[in-house]
């Protein structure tokens, strides 16, 4: 949760109309660790973003992806969510950003180096 220092006039993000599908471009956002070693002692002061895609489910087997989840690719094996990014949004941005998921967990203990499982927001719309 953020406490803003002044009022803003913006609309909340819309839910995506469907869950992320393999090949969909997605942008991940967060303030978590931005180093492959996962060091959370010096977290970024600015919101970070990563442009990635939704891979095929078989590429996310290590994350034990289940129904109601989507997975996000990790470009270069070092560019993924890190410690402190849990709960952060994944958005499909095609003109108007739409929420497609929230960060849940990495496939292994090394955050930022493996595909990451996200809770699929459209699957829990109701």
Structure, explained:
The protein is an all-beta fold and 126 residues long. The chain has one domain: Beta Barrel (Thrombin, subunit H). Helices cover 0% and strands 32% of the residues. The chain has no helices and 7 strands. The chain has strands spanning 14-15, 25-30, 48-53, 69-72, 89-94, 96-106, 116-120. Strands 1, 2, 3, 4, 5, 6 and 7 form a 7-stranded mixed β-sheet that branches. Strand 5 and strand 6 (96-106) form a beta hairpin. The radius of gyration is 14 Å and the shape is globular. The chain starts with 13 loop residues before the first strand and ends in a 6-residue tail after the last strand. The mean pLDDT is 82.
Number of strands: 7
CATH class category name? Mainly Beta
Termini distance? 22 Å
Number of helices: 0
What is the CATH architecture assignment?
Beta Barrel
In N-to-C order, the SSE pattern is EEEEEEE
Average of pLDDT: 82
Please summarize the sheet with the most strands: 7 strands, mixed
The CATH topology corresponds to Thrombin, subunit H
User: Beta-strand percentage?
Assistant: 25-35%
Assign a percent range to the helix content.
Answer: under 10%
Shape: globular
Number of domains: 1
SS content category: mainly beta
